[in-house]
């Protein structure tokens, strides 16, 4: 296995599950967002996806049989402000990886995609056949890679599964791994930083959305459940599964204020709130229908309720208040 971006939040949790399942894993990461200390038990190579010759040689020399691709830029607001960076990293570098995969004859590819490909939902919960009309360059670049995968599959026989995440959250239940971004933009770790006294308040971007309390509604999925879905996807491809796209979510929506109130109960902290303007590109509601992956691959999430998700994250943040050691 080659796991690109395997030192990041979702990638590192997935590497842990792959190792648990008996796979031999090599992680490739440039550590621009990930952490070397989050890679435990796998081989590690620090490199850039743009190094095309190196990628091709690596895939062939290590006889890589499958690739999981997590290495991408992933902030909606940042993508609106700097679309060039997102097209360069998510599309140009993603295509460099696909070309290396094609030349090396790697048969299986699992792609880290996003619910941002849907844009503003027309139906909730969102099924996989919902129109893909992204409202941000982040969503558009992920959709471009999905389309490339479909064409590579038709032309070259590449077998792939694309997993469209909703909001990954929580931390490794065993406490080894957690969420540590710099800068941090995800709601739950920001709330927990405020609970630790590292932030004076929780900023809420917009309270005038067409939702019950005016704040955005999102579908939170525990990162370990998400990681296990990747292992199932790989096994399905190896067993002959045809290329497919699946949503990964809990099927329940929680507003920003609901998350904050749940975190107050879990942490015992007051958590003051400051309302600010909306972020560009943020849809009002994103909630998944994950029935397809449950039906076809037998995926059954274990950590489904919001208090449990926040409790696992809170445990890691309390034990690692400064996050991972800086590389």
Give descriptors for this structure.
four-stranded mixed sheet, seven-stranded parallel sheet, alpha/beta, 13 strands, 327 residues, Rossmann fold
Describe the structure.
The protein has helices at residues 9-20, 52-61, 76-81, 83-104, 137-156, 187-195, 223-238, 256-267, 291-297, 306-319; strands spanning 2-4, 26-29, 43-46, 66-69, 108-114, 159-165, 167-169, 202-205, 217-222, 244-248, 253-255, 273-276, 285-286. By secondary structure, the protein is an alpha/beta fold. It has two domains: 2-169 and 220-248, NAD(P)-binding Rossmann-like Domain (Rossmann fold), CATH 3.40.50; 187-218 and 251-319, UDP-galactose 4-epimerase, domain 1 (Alpha-Beta Complex). The chain has a seven-stranded parallel sheet with strand order 3-2-1-4-5-6-10, sandwiched between helices. Helix 2 packs parallel to helix 4 (83-104) and helix 4 packs parallel to helix 5. The longest helix has 22 residues, at 83-104. The protein is globular and about 55 Å long.
